[in-house]
Specification:
The chain is an alpha+beta fold. 31% of the residues lie in helices and 21% in strands. The protein starts with 6 loop residues before the first strand and ends in a 16-residue tail after the last helix.
């Protein structure tokens, strides 16, 4: 099922307008997540909204927003009052200016979205705006309202569509000076820099995010599968400490020696990862975890898990997700 649009409205460049929809470009839903449960009963914990003074539960219709001005003193703001100050960007992304992408400080980037035409009409206007931005090698800056707040959004071409990245306001970005002022000005020798550059060159390669592995996610799923199947859980040995670095030059030389020894194995591992690289995006925990048994109790769950693990490798592997239909 295709994700739901976070926002629908219009993209406007002067008098050129087209209906568009905004979709999140990233997702955390595929990660393993946990619920809080009662250790004694195994039941899920339920949270209630209660009055801080009386302890009585409060219904949704009796809950309003309040801005704290003093201890136990709030200024109430209703939904109607917030709607009255709604901005034009609630329904329209107006392109205000075009800037070079290199001018945007990475600290201002929040999260990416996909901006696509909404419906069958407006594709011509959408293409005009997209190709104009592409031909000028610029990023379009506009405004959009999400969750009742206005955000700055930077639009740039991405293949046949547009990617929009929300940007922070200046008051949200902390100055680096208060953190960097105490960093000592160290004089480095040419030999040290040459050795460090040599290490970097040995580790240099193309950016291939499909080869990234979330080791903690894999360990979580392996743990859950073992517990489902009744396999014994053994504690991992504590990692050995590398010790303190006494001499920086010796550490650099030793790093180069280690890199030479590890290079052949790393190259083989990378080639193997490329060979088994899935063509489609990797699916999430639902395909990776063993199926949940029925109401037959722990014995049935263990039998089901045992049958499944006999068909799969000891370590679960995510199956390819269903291909998304082309629009």
């Amino acid at each position: 099922m295709a994700p739901r649009a976070n926002w629908k409205g219009f993209l406007r460049l002067s008098l050129v307008t087209c209906p568009v929809a905004l979709y999140p470009a990233t997702s955390d839903t595929e990660k393993v997540s946990f619920n809080q449960i009662n250790r004694k009963t195994g039941h899920r914990i339920k949270y209630l909204k209660v009055d801080a003074e009386t302890g009585d539960e409060v219904t949704s219709e009796d809950i309003v927003k309040g801005y704290k001005v003093d201890t136990d003193t709030y200024i109430e703001v209703t939904k109607d009052e917030l709607d009255d100050i709604a901005l034009d960007s609630t329904h329209t992304i107006d392109i205000d200016e075009f800037v070079p992408k290199a001018d945007i400080d990475n600290r201002y980037l929040i999260r990416p979205y996909y901006l696509v035409p909404d419906g069958k009409v407006g594709h011509d206007a959408y293409a005009v705006i997209r190709e104009t931005i592409r031909s000028m090698d610029k990023v379009a800056i506009g405004r959009v309202v999400l969750t009742n707040r206005e955000h700055i959004i930077a639009l740039e071409p991405l293949e046949s569509g547009l990617m929009g990245t929300l940007l922070r306001y200046p008051y949200e970005v902390r100055s680096e000076t208060e953190y960097f002022d105490d960093i000592q000005d160290v004089k480095l020798t040419r030999d040290m820099l040459d050795l460090a550059k040599h290490i970097v060159e040995k580790k240099s390669g193309a950016f291939e995010p499909e080869l990234f592995e979330d080791h903690y996610e894999t360990a979580l799923i392996d743990l859950i599968n073992k517990k489902r199947s009744g396999a014994p859980i053994t504690a991992k040995a504590a990692p050995k400490s590398g010790g303190n670095v006494i001499n920086l030059m010796d550490a650099l030389k030793k790093s180069i020696a280690n890199e030479k020894d590890a290079a052949p194995a790393a190259k083989v591992a990378k080639e193997a990862a490329k060979a088994k690289k899935p063509k489609k995006r990797v699916a999430g925990q639902r395909e990776m975890l063993l199926p949940i048994a029925g109401k037959g109790g722990k014995d049935a769950a263990a039998k089901t898990a045992t049958r499944e693990t006999s068909k799969k490798a000891d370590k679960p592997v995510r199956a390819p997700a269903r291909a998304k239909k082309a629009s």
